[in-house]
């Protein structure tokens, strides 16, 4: 029974008689271990911070809704997409990637774009970025990639040598590096950037027919980016600039919105398309697979408590609902495990039961116990399956669609290794001013690298994408393309 008498209590509900002075032996101490209120306060304080995320540590979040604007039932049986006009509550978390929890918002970095849809069939998470591609395409390289972006183990300083050494030895990163070093590398605000699911997913309709799908969230505020000098100024003067902008916009009723589009590819096209459609370092041409409108996302409510909602929010690309399934994308396949495992470590094994993560639909399973179990823990109900006591049973009609597999179990690389065409196409799409800023940003980032070998190896990648691209970077670094790598 709750009371509203405004009396301070301990965590176990007992009234606190003195919250200003600890219990001591006499006026000068020492402090008594029997002061359990003091011990509880200090012990809780020591544990107030859950471990920060290894990546995407700093972020901002907001609540909103998603409204279907187009009938896509011929492609997917997902209930939240079942009829035009249907609204689904959702929560989004925007973030930087490489920086720590206290880092500046306006650094050159991809931005996380993670959306949780609270559907009637369970939560569905789209965990993407503000870029349509990624640096690597196999999850086995992910820990090494992130290590290269983090601090040096001896100096604890950011390490350009590691960054460019890794990228120069991983040519598949070139497309994303070009995006990162372009104007799009520093969005003006979270509101003024697109979002992408990045990976390829599979949609299945009510008849069991499947298609491959990619997600594109297009900002209705227009794309705006920051000048590098202004970004640096803001990083010093207001390192929380993007968080503040999002909160204030929603608070004053200027609700940001995005239109969701999808690209649809027939299953059989995956065998003949000129790029591997499951390679997350590549895009699908919109000329080949045009954007199809799906719905509209609106953010209209700020969190009431940052820690409870933004910091404890957990997202996983493996949180599927019927009608949405995985593809053979190797990076996605690794993330299906890694994200949930990170949440079990960081927030706890019962993270999905926290209010921000709890589905709106009923949860019925046989998982019991674990740290911080704060509900009835299943009470005295049956705790195993199969059982003869009326416990929840599987729904065979909700099984994912079957798919064929072939080949030998082996560590196999992607067959397609054209890492240059799409990066070169992107470079050639830029106007002269955009190209100049791109080259300037790259040169500035590479100058601290202490090995010409690394610089020249990376320049060769730029050159293979477009000769002018490589030549201009080389000139900016005072190097000749004739030098041996």
| Number of helical stretches of at least 4 residues | 12
Indicate the CATH architecture of the domain at 59-137 and 185-350.
Beta Barrel
Radius of gyration: 25 Å
> Biggest β-sheet, characterized?
10 strands, antiparallel
Principal-axis shape equals globular
CATH class of the domain at 59-137 and 185-350 reads Mainly Beta
Computed structural class: alpha+beta
The third-level CATH topology of the domain at 59-137 and 185-350 is Catalase HpII,  Chain A, domain 1
The CATH superfamily of the domain at 59-137 and 185-350 bears the name Catalase core domain
SSE ordering: HEEEEHHHEEEHHEEHEHHHHH
How far from one another are the termini? 74 Å
Classify the helix fraction into a percent range.
25-40%
Strand content: 15-25%
Mean pLDDT: 93
Strand elements, count: 10
Poorly predicted residue ranges = none
GO molecular function, one term: catalase activity
Protein name: Catalase
Region (Disordered): 1-29, 374-399
Catalytic activity: 2 H2O2 = O2 + 2 H2O
